Amino acid sequence: MNLNTKDYFQFFIETVSFDEVFEFVIQAKKHYPYLLEGVQIESFCKKISSLATFVTVRNESDKLIGLIAFYMNNSNFLYITLACVLKEYQGKKLFKKMFFLLETKAKCQNYPLVQLEVNKTNEKVKALYEHSGFIQILEKDESLIMQKKINICEVSEYRGGGYIKLS
Q: E strands within 101-166?
């Protein structure tokens, strides 16, 4: 796919159906075989589609091209369980814009921290999160727990999407 500056993307905070999550994960695994390695994909997709909230990015055809799935079931932190942008849409700063919406949601809901787990050997993803302000707080056998402090301040509730022209 040839992307250019005339491409439009729409961002949302929403719920996503099992079918759409499953299709997205299967498509993402074609380029990222390590994604959810050792996880039963169908069960995982059922769980997050029913329990998680999503920051999504969609193309002009409303196709899901990126997502951050997160839980808000702990009052101390918001937990990211999955974050991915399809390979053909990378390099457009879509993750950065999705993460901005996630931080806005965290601020609006008074969550002081965002946490996630990343594979120890995935240096590229670890560096991406460090660049976004995450620090390592715990090391496990095969993964790292990373955390970012959110500065709680008065913000307006983000209420949906809108087309954003990327230049």
A: 113-119, 135-139, 143-149, 163-165
Instruction: Identify whether the C-beta of residue 79 lies closer than 8 Å to the C-beta of residue 71.
Output: yes
Please report, for the domain that includes residue 134, its CATH number.
3.40.630.30
Residue range 101-153, pLDDT digits in tens: 999 999 989 899 999 999 999 898 899 899 999 999 999 999 999 999 998 76
Number of structural domains found in the chain: 1
What pLDDT is attached to residue 62? 96
Strand order of the sheet with strand 8-14?
135-139, 143-149, 113-119, 77-85, 64-74, 53-58, 8-14, 163-165
CB 145 within 8 A of CB 120: no
Evaluate whether residue 121 is within a structural domain.
yes
> How are beta strands 113-119 and 77-85 bridged, if at all?
parallel
Cβ–Cβ under 8 Å, residues 144 and 134: no
Residue closest to 125 by CA, chosen among 28, 40, 48? 28
Q: How crowded is residue 156: how many other Cβ atoms within 10 Å of its Cβ?
A: 8
